[in-house]
Amino acid sequence: MIDQTTASVPETSNQLAELSNQLRSSSEKKQLQLIPELVNQGDAGLDVLMDFLQAQSSTPPSLSVGLAYQALYQAKTAKTEEFLQSHFPTGIVPLLSERDIDYAPLQQLLAEQEFQAADRLTLEKLCDLAGSAALQRKWLYFSEVEKFPIPDLQTINTLWVIHSQGKFGFSVQRELWLAMGKNWEKLWPKIGWKSGNSWTRYPNEFTWDLSAPKGHLPLSNQLRGVRVIATLLSHPAWLS
Is the pLDDT of residue 8 over 60? Predict the structure, then answer.
């Protein structure tokens, strides 16, 4: 009589090997589907994700790399924590800043999918970029946005894009805005900031997870006025 427990070991091993091969060779869309499957495989699946992440470390971060990183970050096992601290101590997105601003706390919140806290911190970091007066008033003038360094805006945006599977970020909002002929009244309902004649109320009426409409976050409408968001979405950071 065959021991069913013993028989399942090579079967599981073969399944993991197949998932690992698919993860390396598939399209990004397929990779995003495979990563949750690997997480469900427990420690062995996490080992596959660590191998995948290490193999991709020399390339620019992709959505699938972002999701793999998040899975390992959220697993919080001794092995995954040691791996991430050793190989990706500040995450997978280069945290570039011309103003010596620390974006690691924002990276951590987004990796944990704490989108509401990340949204508040994003505004704080933007005010930090603008200077002490903006930090004190907690909102921005459009003239301050014009002077934002390109690397800083790109860092903030990439963190949002990579850790939302491409759903959130200033560049995502910009694409939708351009697709609608820069028509704000079409954009607001599209991204869930307005319903009919009613503005979405902060914070309870906004959606703080990936079920939100594309482009829903970050809430740059909280930066005050169309002129500020128009300046932000027209910034040269999105042209380079």
Answer: no
pTM value > 0.90: yes
Closest C-alpha to 70, from 159, 153, 151, 152? 159
**b/e burial code for range 170-204 (CB count within 10 A of at least 16 → b):** bbbbbebbeeeeeeeeebbebbbbbeeeeebeeee
From CA 178, how far away is CA 174, in angstroms rounded? 6
Same topology, domains 4-87 and 114-239? Answer is no
* Structure-token match 């599209």, residue found: 190
For domain 4-87, give the fold.
1.25.40
28, 62 contact by CB (below 8 A): yes
Q: Give how far Cα 223 sits from Cα of 17, 70, 130, 218, Å.
A: 48, 28, 12, 10
Radius of gyration of the chain, Cα coordinates, nearest whole angstrom: 20
pLDDT digits (tens, 9 = 90+) for 35-82: 999 999 999 999 999 999 999 988 999 999 999 999 999 999 999 999
- For the domain covering 114-239, report its CATH number: 1.10.10.1770
Domain boundaries, the chain: 4-87, 114-239
**CB neighbours of residue 12 within 10 Å:** 13
pLDDT digit string (tens) for 188-216? 999 999 999 999 999 999 999 999 999 99
Residues 158 and 238: beta-carbon distance below 8 Å: no
Give mean pLDDT, residues 181-189. Answer: 95
